[in-house]
Specification:
about 100 residues; alpha/beta; 4 helices; about 45% helix
Length: about 100
């Protein structure tokens, strides 16, 4: 099962709001994924693993995990942009999985 990490500064309130919206979007698409809340520090842990990060803060690209901005969901300004980005990444992950 895919893991999608929802990251904000503290990993509490903001990520909970965004996580719920991401879960609803995935459910509307019939997709199963483990959606977890995390902090930036969690991402830096060697033990942390995720297939995608939806973040409300700027993250370095060097993390090596595909990232999507969660700010449109948080602010309510065209959330479809984030949903489309999530769907594109999921399609790419699906294709990479088929190629293996």
């Amino acid at each position: 099962m895919l893991t999608i990490a929802i990251v904000c500064g503290a990993g509490i309130a903001t990520s909970a709001l965004v996580a719920e919206q991401v879960r609803d979007h995935l459910a509307s698409r019939g997709r199963d994924a483990h959606v977890v809340q995390a902090t930036v520090m969690d991402l830096l842990s060697a033990d942390f693993q995720a297939d995608m990060v939806v973040s409300t803060v700027d993250l370095p690209a060097a993390l090596g995990i595909p990232q999507v901005s969660g700010m449109p969901l948080l602010l309510g300004t065209n959330p479809q942009v984030t949903y489309d980005d999530i769907d594109r990444l999921l399609a790419r992950i699906d294709e990479e999985g088929k190629a293996r």
